[in-house]
Amino acid sequence: MKLTIPKEYNPVLSVRQTQEAIKYIRDTFQHEFGKEMNLLRISAPLFVEKSSGLNDDLNGTEEPVHFTMKEMQEERIEVVHSLAKWKRFALKQYGFQLHEGLYTNMNAIRKDEELDNLHSAYVDQWDWEKIIAKEERTENVLKQHVRTIFKIIKHMEHEVWYKYPTAVNHLPDQIHFITSQELLDRYPNLEPRQRENEIAKELGCVFIMKIGGKLSNNKKHDGRAPDYDDWKLNGDILFWYEPLQCALEISSMGIRVDEDSLVKQLKIEGKEDRLQYPFHKAIVDRKLPYTIGGGIGQSRLCMLLLKKAHIGEVQASIWPEEMIRTCYENNIQIL
């Protein structure tokens, strides 16, 4: 069982106060986020057809929860891992224009997740996607959006402080940028998670860029599906999280593949068979808009702002009995 117990942990807020704070954070953040990023909130599916090619492949090893429907026995239906591909398709279908975008409350099941303080089988995040021009597929545009998201999160710290001054976690004033290769060069003897911890502890908040391809050591910093992010134009937002003494990932995001990078990345991964799917064909045929997008963890944001020791304190999920018992013995209030 992977579980970290902070010394003399004090949740500050009661369970009921925590529930009130969760709602406040979620309501306030999504309002500010939509306004700042020019995004419209829309409805989204909980499951998709496998044949559509729309489900997120994550690292390529996780199996989605799946089932068949009475009226569609021939079709395998998959509970989403995320809406990384679906959002881009929706932007086209719903007639969004340049520099307009959407966000949605995304709920997913990742049954193969290794459960610990930060990881749950239930995933809740704001999935977002925005149309950009082809010539805007640049590192500068990526960084602009990262800085905007950081500004909104920083503003949320002040909002939470106003209502819950004794519970709020004080965040750094700036976000820094580093590529996964630069991170390897800086800490050549450490594993990827150790490198993330070191840089997050040093800088407070960091955006690690260019994730998915192999580095100079012939290894990947982390896995990324080859058919949504452009591996040269993506990254993760990490905060140093003092209660658990580790880096806390709040968002994975990036500029999405175009017709060239899609084919190149599928070839690298040996996944060229996906080019038969409607989604992938639409990209190659330039029938979908060029976009930037990502996901922002709702429970993780609540956890970050409220200094919670376990994600189970801010979401209702399923945990091993031993983990629940150990948490209660150490004043960690699992919902």
UniProtKB/TrEMBL annotation:
One of its GO terms (molecular function) is aspartate-ammonia ligase activity. It comes from the Bacteria. The keyword Cytoplasm applies. The keyword Zinc-finger does not apply. Pathway: Amino-acid biosynthesis; L-asparagine biosynthesis; L-asparagine from L-aspartate (ammonia route): step 1/1. It is found in: Cytoplasm. It is an enzyme of class 6 (ligase). Its EC number is 6.3.1.1. It catalyses: L-aspartate + NH4(+) + ATP = L-asparagine + AMP + diphosphate + H(+). Pfam families: AsnA. Residues 23-320 form the Aminoacyl-transfer RNA synthetases class-II family profile domain. Transmembrane segments: none annotated. Keywords: Amino-acid biosynthesis, Asparagine biosynthesis, ATP-binding, Cytoplasm, Ligase, Nucleotide-binding. HAMAP family: AsnA. Belongs to the class-II aminoacyl-tRNA synthetase family. AsnA subfamily. PANTHER family: ASPARTATE--AMMONIA LIGASE. This is Aspartate--ammonia ligase. It comes from Faecalicoccus acidiformans. The gene is asnA.
